[in-house]
Amino acid sequence: MLSCLLPAIHFADGTVVPIAISAAITMIVGMIFVTKPFSNYFNHRTQMSTTRKHSETSNKRMAYVAVALVWVLLVLFGMLPFLLTRSTTSVSDALFESMSGLTSTGATIFADVESLPPSILFWRSVSQWIGGFGIILLVLAIVPSLHINKYSLYTAEASGADNSGKTTTSTRSMVRQTLAVYLCLTLFFIVVLRLSGMTLWEASNITFTNISTGGFSIYGDSIARFTPLQQYILAASMFLGGVNFALLYNLFTFKWSRLKNKLDQFGFYCAIAFVSVLAVFGVLRVHHELPWDEALRDAVVQTLSVLTTTGSVVADTTLWWTPILLMFLILSFCGGMAGSTTGGIKIMRVLILFRNVGNALLSRLHPHAYNPVRLNGKPVSNDIITNVMVIFVVMCTTLLFSLLALLICGVESTEALGAVFGCLTSYGPGLGASGGFGSYAAFPMVAKWICSVLMLLGRLECLTILILFLPGFWRK
Amino acid sequence: MNLRLLFRILGMLLVIMAISMILPIAVSLYFGDGSQFGLALSALTILTVGLFMRNFLGTKATRELDMRESYWFTVAIWVIIPLAGALPYLFTSSTATFTDAAFESFSGFTTTGSSVLVNIDHAPEGLLVWRAISQWIGGVGLILFVVALLRRLNEGSARLVEAEFSGTLQRRLHPRMKRSVMLMWLVYTGLTLTLFLLLMVGGNGFVDAFCTALSTVSTGGFMTHSAGLAGFSRFSMASITIFMFLSGVNLALLYGIFTGRWRSLFVDEEARRYFIIFFAAVLICFLSFSLAGGFSLHSLGFSFFHVASTISTCGFFTSAPSVWPATVSVVTFLLVFIGASAGSTGGGLKIKRLMIIARYVRNYFVRMIHPHAVLAVKIDNKVVEEQYVGRVFSFLFLYLLLVVAGALVLTLSGVDIPNSFCMAAANIGNLGPSPVFDNLGASLNYFALPGFAKWSLMLLMLAGRIEIVALVSLILPAYWRKNK
Fold first, then answer.
1. Which of A148, A322, A389 minimises the CB distance to B368?
2. CA–CA dist A422, A454 (Å, integer)
3. Angle at A425 between CA A422 and CA A428, to 5 degrees
4. Chain A interface includes B200 (CB < 8 A)
């Protein structure tokens, strides 16, 4: 019980503090009106959802509703700053932007970001930071405490299969560790970026959006105007944002012996990052004939931005060669490591998928062999494999159907493809007009709603939301 | 390794191929199209090689075959036979390069129907007949051809067929593999003959009727005119549509029609889904045509034709209504992925697999609320084993992976991203001409693609035709490891 209360308190901290800062900076009265009821109400909901859990089924039902409701309410209240400051007059635009912020997607509806008031810019950055925060809490603390066990892929790995008996203690300490890492990283990068020559304003905004792998920027050209050094630092922040936070914690606290049960995933993450950076670099160098330094920088920063589903843009990617853009779609679908702030289906699932497929193929040849899927040398439980397969199928199906829905809305096919990948994987930018430094401003209204829903689905890995719409869900 | 058996099988297939080329040669002599020498030369070459393989390399073949061998046999057969089938295109100088000839031949044997021949209207008739025959041979699978012919290969034949169909062929017609294969051939030939006669009655020339009948029943999709089936009479179109529809049904169920057990058509769950999907798609297409361009009988007929052509992965096209709403493209795109029933001649993911996956996912959702529920995936009231479900999943994963990989290669050759996805999906699904999003209809010819793109499309067709598993297994290191 106690551990369940913890996230609520943490969550409230996370929301109140940055907004107080933003209020101090901007002095916009509307903001204060928003924050008070917002944080209170949210706090209340979280507690409700976490304290009630007795009769199993009805409670599970309640839990799913609560998780969905928390996000929806959060997003609804997040809309208010945009509407009250008249940054946009359309509700669907505000919803899109707020959703994009709180799911740390980074797709923007504003064609001209720089004309927005600083307060709104800061709110966008902060909302992403909260979003990154929120997803960690959700996966780490709220969901396991609700005993939606099948969902807890991350806890299964982070805590190891052996100490499943004492989830409460491990959950609490894990939440602490993770938040500590998140806060430290944020502070660290703000300081480093400040030292590298950014103003504090730039440094904090950009850090908020990059460490949370969100990708909003306070400038129309995203991060393209920063110096190479600053961009490399940002790349590092994105990369770290895509790493399992428990791994980072153990790394920084020199508990290296604990690292070895996450190395499989980390190795795969690094390998993917390295290979794809190399590929992009090759293309930029040979096909686009960029100079060495620029090609290397663009390749490193942009590829990491995609792989970690951040969505910061370092150059006008719409002009890049098509195969690279397609590769970006695939990378963003993979996402970063499980237990980080990234979207996508997570590297760990990709790894399990591949190994499982290999095993399934071999099982035809040797039908009686015992050959489980292994991760870090340990067999992976069937539940997790099922979870991985189901999420993969559901994600693909969602992708396909939302693509078709966008096409029916009259969005051009390349744009539609980019948009569904961008929104579902929480990468952000799409292809064509919505890609690169562009925005989703030109999308038809229905398409914006579809994209907003996609972001939410992608962030919560589809299942938690989709289950609410199953006919059997509400039945006794 | 049991190389002798492989040579024997290959030799027999090559001899069959050579014999089946008599008809194209006769047609070409009759029409005087000038391709008879090229055809005869390739027939002789194939015959010689075939006889050599069968009678010298393939003698004293043991009839033992384990799973591992059956996999790479299947792949080897499916690579070598289409390559041999490329000879007529080369020798008649119908294609400029070997790549094009191989593409056309692969497309034929895998019943895909993607074409690189730019000037079909002036192509020699003999060659058109050969194209159609290659599809027909590939239609129910090369292996089935062999199984029917080889003596004493009961256990091994089951393995080979398993490798070729990766387990979708569960419903056997007869306890003995060989007997059931013979029955399948009977149904297949019967369907083809019926359609051929219908088309002759419908007033088509011999070449048109013959080629189209073979293309339809094998769900290949090669056509004899560059305008597609636009010149065919209403009666012919109707019969083609009906036979395309039938080709998407499990052959075993079709056999039931002949023996009076036609009721099983409506009891079988997969067939029911097939009908539902078919009629729903027709309805959606027709409605959106009506909304866009007004009600007309032509658009109704076209909806039937188009949906049948896509869902059976036949890939025929004809003159479409001038307004082509986005909804129709969308439905088409979905159908490309879904494909026909398991055990039919069509390609795609197959409805049965999708049913298994859908039910598995549904069970998962139920267990999210009721964690202790014990649920199994059932098809036709029979429990599908967990292991089999896992295979279906891995099939789906590999299928999508190959589509993405194919799309990546296609973008290298300058195709835009959505179209490259379409092309890859259409070729791995053995559909052929791919539905294009923003332009209407289909991108009809693959001639303009560079060589490497054509070769990777061939690989996709092959993967789709032999249901991926046998092909992909070969690249696993563990596959080649000796098990002691």
1. A148
2. 9
3. 35
4. no
Query: Helix, strand or coil for residue A375?
Result: strand
d(CA A302, CA A127): 23
CA distances to A137, A349, A381, B383, B473 from B386, rounded to whole Å, are 34, 20, 14, 9, 20
Tell me if B395 sits within 8 A of B353, measured CB to CB. yes
CA dist., res. B132 & res. B139, Å (int): 10
DSSP label of A432: G
* Residues A141-156 pLDDT 10s: 665 555 444 444 444 3
Exposed, middle or buried, B306 (CB in 10 Å: 0-12/13-18/19+)? buried
pLDDT digits (tens, 9 = 90+) for B20-65: 999 999 999 998 888 888 899 999 999 999 998 888 887 776 666 7
ipTM of the complex: 0.89
- The backbone torsions φ and ψ at residue B321, rounded to the nearest 5 degrees and listed phi first, read -55, 150
**Alpha carbons B478 and A356: distance in angstroms, whole number:** 14
Q: Is B479 on the interface with A (CB under 8 A)?
A: yes
CB A428 within 8 A of CB A422: yes
**Cα A221 to Cα B304: distance, rounded to the nearest angstrom:** 50
> Whole-prediction pTM value?
0.89
CB–CB of B417 and A417 under 8 A? yes
- Cβ contact (<8 Å) for B397 and A353? yes
Contacts of B389 (CB under 8 A, 6+ apart): B356, B357, B360, B377
Give the integer Cα–Cα distance in Å for A3 and A169. Answer: 8
Is B51:B11 a contact under the CB 8 Å cutoff?
A: yes
Minimal Cβ distance to B476: which of A60, A149, A361? A361
Residue A366: which of B364, B370, B483 has the nearest Cβ?
B483
Shortest Cα distance, chain B CAs vs residue A443, angstroms: 16
DSSP B443: E
Q: Which of residues 380-439 of B touch A (CB under 8 A)?
A: 387, 390-391, 393-394, 396-398, 400, 404, 407-408, 411-412, 414-421, 437-438
- Which pair of tokens denotes residue B359? 């039910």
Q: Is B283 on the interface with A (CB under 8 A)?
A: no
Return d(Cα B301, Cα B308) in angstroms, integer: 11
Q: Which residue has the tokens 């062929």?
A: B169
